[in-house]
User: Fold this.
Amino acid sequence: MMLITAIVGPSRVDPVKRALALFGVRGLTLTRVFVPAGVDAPVEVYRGERLITDLAPRVRLDLLCANLDAPDLAHVIDRAVADHEVEIWLTQVHHLVRIRTGDVGLDAL
Assistant:
């Protein structure tokens, strides 16, 4: 099994969810995260003071899948984000247990 982790912009979450649904993905986990904004960090004014916003909001998507589906799913995520910035990690999962049902391995997906 593989864990796919992708960091995408908030505006790209819906296109990614739609693309994954077409591929047959039933569930994924979404988490709000903040990443370094880079060199062009926006400057905001708050109560008369200039603030450099050095963290940009992003969304982290976590998805478990079978080993054979991982490259295809990573490609689906990359294509759904199109020309926007995306970071994708594939991590091998050696043991998976669904605590509620006691299912192990691919049955736990």
User: Anything to note?
Assistant: The chain is about 20% helix and 40% strand. The CA atoms of residues 40 and 93 lie 37 Å apart.
